[in-house]
Structure formats: C-alpha cells, structure tokens
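Deliverable D4.2, example record:
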Amino acid sequence: QVQLVESGGGSVQAGGSLRLSCAASGYTDSRYYMGWFRQAPGKEREGVTAIWPGGGFTYYADSVKGRFTISRDSAKNTVYLQMNSLKPEDTAMYYCAARGRGSSWSEPTGYDYWGQGTQVTVSS
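Output generated by the structure prediction step:
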C-alpha cells in the first residue's frame, strides 16, 4: 500500500522560508514524476514543481522559479520542497503526489497517489 506523508508546513511571514517533506512508503518507482501541488481556497489545484527521479530532471511553475527547489533523497525515499522568499500568494494546502504518468508534470489527473496535504500560510 502506497502512502505519502507530508510534513513541514506552517505559518511564516513574507520573505521567510519553509521546507516541506514527503515521505513515501510502499512506492519506489523512479520511472514516473513525483510532484508538489498546491490548492488555495476557491482555486484549482495547481502544479508547483516535479522531479523525474530516473533522470533527475526538475520542473517548476513560473510563479515559483528561483524561489522553490525540489529535491529527492532516494535512501530515505523522501522528496523535499525548499521554499524561500515566500509570498502571501504562496498560501495554500500543499500536496505531494507520486506516479505521475501524464503528458505534463503539472496535470493533477496524471498522478496516481496523493498525500493528505500540509498547510502553508504566509502573512504580509
């Protein structure tokens, strides 16, 4: 049984940093994307970043490029999201997703497994 457990969310002031973690159990397939998505109240879930473990390729939404970094520790089977220079518009529930097989890394429907989410709140 695949489980994705996110942690590391919290409340910070604008300009601050947070690091999210996604610990995966029952899943070690490196052939597909692992990604981070976020969803703010009243908005659709959007892709933030993804990594293709097989090749180490990373992908980012334009809104977070240069501020967020995705990384993976294969020994711990954990994916991280380092978020710097946070802005109030980054406030959302952040979700980890695995086994992304869609044509686009940012398409939520392309992922088979999801975590429960961790809240990130950035105040101005």
